[in-house]
Amino acid sequence: MDQDDPIESFVAYAAEHWPSHLQSAQLIVDDGFMDKLFQLYDTAGRGHPPWFAIYWKATRPYGGRPSVNALHLTALLRHEQALSRLLQTGYELDIDARDDNGRTALIWASEYGHERVVQMLLDKGADVNAQGDFYGNALQAASYRGHEGVVQMLLGKGADVNAQGGFYGNALRAASNGSHEKVV
Hints:
- The chain is mostly helical and about 180 residues long.
- The chain has helices spanning about 5-25, 30-40, 50-60, 70-75, 80-90, 105-110, 115-125, 140-145, 150-155, 170-175.
- The termini are far apart.
């Protein structure tokens, strides 16, 4: 994108920041609104690829864009109302579904410290010890990023502090590498 072009600059800003604006808008949402939102989250649909490609490049320019589903996106973007709707509906939902990098929604939410989302996923039965991705598991992701509250929630639900895997090997190494003394 040419950042000197005002239209392209606006498109880039909108793609990158609409999730945070939606979080702070405190909207009262109805089924029609959720239907539109889930169209944006539909990874196979028309609306998803353009905005998500721009969002991903702006927020994580160093990594390849993952193939995610609506559950992953609600966890990553901390869209609690959308997640609640997904979890309450009869929507065919695999709470521990993995993206193409092996991350579950719980790993996404844990990495970003989205405590309410983590709690919602745990309450719905997400596997606290699911292995996959760069971090290895949700506890390692939260530990590396220093999210003390999430670490406590995961441990309270039985996260294996000695689980091996991921780039850092275990949660202690992840927390140490992230220089998070309180998590260690």
